[in-house]
Amino acid sequence: MNYKENYNLWKNYKDLDQSLKQELDTLDENQIEEAFYQDLTFGTGGLRGIMGVGTNRVNIYTIRKATLGFARYLLKHNLTDGVAISYDNRKDSKKFAEEAAKVLAANGIKSYLFNALRPTPMLSFAVRYFKASGGIMITASHNPKQYNGYKAYDQTGAQVNPITADLIIEEINNIKNPFDIDTVENDLIHSVDETFDDIYLNAIKDIKINDEIKKVKIVYSPLHGTGGPIIPQFLMDQGYEVHPYTPQMIVDPNFSNTKSSNPEDHEAYEQTIAFAKDIDADIVMVTDPDADRLGIAVKHEGTYELITGNQTASVELYYLLSQRKKYNLLPPNGHVYTTNVTTKLIEVIARSFELDVITTLTGFKFIGEKAEMYQETNPYIFGCEESYGSLISDVVRDKDAVQAVYMLAEIANHLKLQGKTIMDYLNEIYDTYGAYYEYTHSISLKGIEGSKKIQEIMSFFRENPPRLDDKHLLGYDDVQKSIRVEDGIKSHLDLPKSNVLKYIFEDDTWIVFRPSGTEPKIKIYYGTKQKTLEEAKAYLQTIDKQIMKIIDEI
To answer: What is the mean pLDDT of residues 370-374?
Structure first.
């Protein structure tokens, strides 16, 4: 149906949710087209969009439709061992989770529904713990407050891969009437209460390496989200001095006490750093609303330095490998997992410890899929991506900020006992391996016109590889076409097809163009290796200006 037909179907549905009906009556023609011109689709993070009325919005009807499609996929493939369901702090997240459980129940599928908001990694763990056939997490992760979403998980506890997502989408697309979906409440809906917290936390305690006297002082914020009920008390129980930032501990869908719900944004740290200064804390830890990403700021030489996701992952990996090697805890044939937009430093560190590195596309579902593939032959060691996500123990098959907080607390404490900071440690890593640095420039392009502009940018660079004045282009990956070109010679690229372009230059310098799978953005990623961190930062700013000039002229 075109957007007008979709609109009329909703307009004429007499039992439409009252709040959605009121919104529908206020839309102008442009807003009607935006709300109805397409159905929400699965990206790298599942289903995600602005909440409101319409087929291109997140509401009880699109949630029901997605769940019915998921249910039909499960039944068609004899995956009948239930679905774990959790949710974050966003508006209507609990309602959407309950609606999903009722759709599953109407189709004879049991669910394990958390009775209070809980982190995404705990949902992944629950899928594995209950030996369920899948999972649903109602969240928009770090997106602004207007958004909500729906992450679907397979029986391994990883987010569904593109093949499975396509099969689910096929089932969803076969549902023509979003208002003709049965829901029931019955004993197939099993409640998961707070006693499950200890089961999860006990499973991740094993990542601890050094159990030393606790001297580090930590400020923590969940940015109003799911980390609040779990993380501070867990750290305190392990002996850490934790100071939760009270205004952001409140479960709040409006994110009233933070300028950003994204740990990648500097604004997300303004209040917690001010609080840390007042109490002279050593480290600030901030988790995103569904607690799968962690950002940190560390006190170093009298100021609080923000650490990027790439830097945090590098610190975690080097500590894990060096300390485990010290205690003969590093298994042979282990694998480290990274993505094609993550710092090259991860690969360099891993190979220095004679470990194999598996590189995937962006999205932890790809890391989870590979970890499952190699679990019998190659022990999982570590996985990460540049966007502030990492995983230490694969009892979870998604990025896990609870584990990251626990490990970074140990690292910060271990270093403080030696009179060092995480910045000191990072500089030691640079001295050993070289000054690797990365930068991401995100361009927001909303709506129909924005989507067209993103496609124009990708088409341009697909036909016109970027040129850098001082560095020779060694090769490139066109992931959409599954080709790698090196020295003019084409070969097959063994990655799932995706609209991603990566250009590789001399001196470990690279550029990636990638439309976001979860937001109306195109992201341009840059990486380089220079003699010093300052030189690396300056060089990336120079080439970013060159690329932005080209984009402005497209």
So the answer is: 96
Residue boundaries of the structural domains of the chain: 3-193, 209-433, 435-553
Handedness of CA 463, 465, 467, 472 (dihedral sign): negative
Tokens 């934790």 belong to which residue?
A: 242
Record the pTM: 0.95
CA–CA dist 105, 71 (Å, integer): 10
Helix (H) or strand (E) run with residue 407 in it: helix 401-416
Query: Which helix or strand (DSSP H or E) is residue 284 part of?
Result: strand 283-287
pLDDT for res 46: 74
Please give the positions annotated as active site: 141
Q: How far apart are CA 542 and CA 64, in angstroms?
A: 48
Question: Is residue 65 within a helix (H) or strand (E), and if so which, with residue range?
Answer: helix 60-76
| Sheet containing strand 489-492, strands side by side | 435-444, 521-530, 509-515, 501-505, 473-478, 483-486, 489-492
DSSP 160: P
Q: DSSP string spanning 423-461?
A: HHHHHHHHHHH-EEEEEEEEEE--HHHHHHHHHHHHHHH
Kindly give, in sequence order, each residue whose CB lies less than 8 Å from that of residue 303, ignoring residues fewer than 6 positions away.
none
| Cα dihedral 357, 481, 506, 438 in deg (nearest 10) | -60
Nearest residue to 156 via CA among 403, 401, 399, 398: 398
- DSSP readout, 89-118? SSTTHHHHHHHHHHHHHHTT--EEEESS--
Q: Say if residue 44's pLDDT is above 60.
A: no
Domain 209-433, what fold? Alpha-D-Glucose-1,6-Bisphosphate; Chain A, domain 3 (3.40.120)
Confidence of residue 41 (pLDDT cuts 50, 70, 90): confident
Do residues 84 and 123 make contact, with C-beta atoms less than 8 angstroms apart?
yes
Task: Please tell me the predicted confidence (pLDDT) of residue 45.
Answer: 61
pLDDT in tens, 300-322: 999 999 999 999 999 999 999 99
* CATH fold for the domain made of 3-193: Alpha-D-Glucose-1,6-Bisphosphate; Chain A, domain 3 (3.40.120)
Question: What are the angstrom distances between the C-alpha of 524 and each of 140, 227, 500, 548?
Answer: 22, 30, 10, 10
CB 432 within 8 A of CB 317: no
Q: What number is the average pLDDT over the span 245-259?
A: 98
